[in-house]
Amino acid sequence: MEICDRNMGNNSGKNPGTVQYNKPKTFIMKSIPFLRKLSAIFLLIIFLSASPSAADNIKCNRMPVLIGSFLSNHYAMKNITGEIKNNTIEQMIKMLDPSKSLFYESDLKTLRAVLQNVFASMQAGDCASLKQVYDMLVTRTRENEAIVKKILGPDFRLDETMELQINVKKRSHVKTPQEKHMLLKKFIQFQIQNDLLSGIELAEAKKQQMHRYELQTTRTIANNPEKLITRLAEAFANALDPHTSYLSPEDFEDIQIHMKLSLEGIGALLRSDNGFTVIEELIPGGGAERSGLLKPKDKIIAVAQKNDKPVNVIDMDLRDVVKMIRGKKGTQVTLTILRQEDKIYRFDITIKRDKIYMKDQEAKISYETRNLGGRIYRLGIIDLPSFYGDNEENKSSYKDMRRLLEDAHRQRVDGIVLDLSHNMGGLVDEAVRIAGLFLGHGGIVATKDGKDMITIYANGPYASVSKGDKLKVVTFPAKAPLYTGPLVVLTSRISASASEIVAGALKDYYRAVIVGSDHTFGKGSVQELTPLSRDLGAIKVTKALYFLPSGKSTQKIGIESDVQLPMFFVHENVGETELEYPLPAQVITPFLSLYGDTKPAWKSIDRSLLTALATKSKVRVANNVKFNEITKDNIEAARKNGIVRLADLRKEMKKNGDVNKNETRTELKLKAKEQYAPFVNESVNVLLDMIILESKSSLQVAGIMR
Predict the structure, then answer these.
(1) Do residue 387 and residue 321 come from a single domain?
(2) Could you tell me the pLDDT band of residue 594, with boundaries at 50, 70 and 90?
(3) Which CATH number belongs to the domain containing residue 571 in this structure?
(4) Which of 44, 92, 97, 241 could hold 102 in an S-S bridge, CB 3.0 to 4.6 Å?
(5) What is the pLDDT of residue 114?
(6) Are residues 410 and 326 in the same domain?
(7) Among 612, 552, 625, 541, which Cα is nearest to 587's?
């Protein structure tokens, strides 16, 4: 089994990437942040499967072995060089101070010297010098807390002219206490404004901000020096390439849930809000929803296991709360809930943990009808969020896609849009087989490892190349293509890995029209996932690059759209080239092969058709009010170059109707769907154009073949 999953850079410097399990083989890619709002930045955690025993921190004497595992398995990096050491140190600093609001520029010299020393001393199992890093963290965190409390004193007033550079890459570390005071003042101004626009009174907003910084100090102190060894492991992995990483036990579980779309728990999505654990969303079918007693925005203030006393979880780290609540199917957990409506309610609820299936992340199809020239056209839109699969549960995105295409056949569709615009990657074997539903037999993707071994993954018989010492072929059972009619694939800058494999194969075989932003993400590497012993999580190591049937790599390039739309992120730093230490792109010999001399069962896309479709779409987009607003916003964002004014934040929230409205995750998802509707609608327009233009040049009828 193979998995692909994408990763986008973020301010934390932590960049998970593609993963591969051994036996069965699996290549994975991990998801990336999407449509973040300045006014709604919070961590969402799913109640995961059965709780393991408390995870151990990585011990110093294990670090040389861990580093050796990374280097021995990496595609390109085989030795610790001076460059890798320096990259590790810079990644460590970014993890400890992602917003550049903690350390002074002068602190960095000390940190770099200490961390360089750790590389030498850890070989003897000595990481004691990390205590100096810990002490500096505690000192600077306490300093920030004191500064914030001073800022939020009796004389605090909002300054509408305040500006903040939100692109951390464009900010330097502060040099003086005065510069730090001003930076923290800007942060507080924007945080308070967000609270006020959400309907919180000024006095309460000030109180909450002070409490947040108090919590930060408390948690920094609680994270003892030994925990910095784990951060160092993460930093070393990130220094090799953007997608190699060390995974904590929690991150490892997250990947497994993302692939399986199932978990064992109570079925709720949580966030942390100023020390409170808040229910963000109830998962349909879970025990939390079935109880009929819980609601979004409820606060969990205590947790009790069966026959045990409740444990107060106020101000507890969200991950620790999750560990207490998760558990095996059939076991019980009691939550103490605080609900604030017209008055404050407090009550206990006991929930039986169960198997939860994340139906909202499965492939789904919807239908639209268009009346053109007196004829009714029926069009299918398939939304495929990821390439998921689980052999134990008999769960498969490929099987779901077969089912959806069979339904489309019964609906007698004239064409299909395959929406991969927010696909988070997934299992490669699922992606290969899904591509086969539209192509039938043929090579879909190839990988090349550090020893130049090329492996081609194909559907059905594949004999167009001879096997050798440096070439092997992995085939999946396949029949004729299930759907042979007009096909449009909708992509975006965040479509990556497995999405790029499918979109790229369909484009290389001239099977589909690619509609979307200028190009996809551009992640063309695969990683191997190796679980660690003693519940230490796992490591992901870049093992190979992958290539499309044309022999081209998507690495740093992505898949170019045939019909370009003014997508989100067009002026933002999104893509493989924006990440640190990306591998270079390569090419291999093309391996395009379908039926030999047999004519394919669909009509190939030709250049003249693509030109006509792009021209028609460009006219529509230019006259579309919503697209014009998006283009205008993108131009304005580029002009501001990452700088946001406090007054503009209020105007933007008023424009979007967000003022005094603390929206739930469900409400935010509905709003995102509305905002994204123009792109889906235009992809349907392109599909209809395609059907009409092809019908004029051919009598071929779209349909399902068995």
Answers:
(1) no
(2) low
(3) 3.90.226.10
(4) 97
(5) 95
(6) no
(7) 552
Q: Do 344 and 391 fall into the same domain?
A: no
**Which residues have C-beta within 8 Å of that of residue 339, sequence separation ≥ 6?**
295, 297, 298, 299, 345, 346, 347
The span from the CA of 562 to the CA of 693, in Å, is: 16
- The three-state secondary structure class of 590 is coil
The sign one gets for the Cα dihedral 7, 9, 11, 16 is positive
Residue 405 lies in a domain: yes
Q: Is the model's pLDDT at 657 over the cut of 80? A: no
Q: Would the pLDDT of 456 be above 60?
A: yes
Whether 326 is covered by a domain: the verdict is yes
CA dihedral 625, 627, 633, 635 (to 10 degrees): -120
Q: In whole angstroms, what is the distance from residue 227 CA to residue 249 CA? A: 14
CATH code of the domain in which 308 resides: 2.30.42.10
Banded model confidence at residue 567, pLDDT cuts 50, 70, 90 = confident
Residue 81 lies in a domain: no
What are phi and psi for residue 651, nearest 5 degrees?
A: -60, -40
End-to-end CA distance of the chain: 26
310-349 tens-digit pLDDT: 999 998 988 889 889 988 999 999 999 999 888 888 999 9
Structure tokens at 536: 């230490």
Q: Per the domain annotation, does 26 fall within a domain?
A: no
Residue scoring higher pLDDT (672 or 92): 92
Stated pTM of the model: 0.85
Look up the domain containing 132 and give its range: 96-231
Residue-level pLDDT at 465 = 53
Pair 335, 405 in one domain:
no
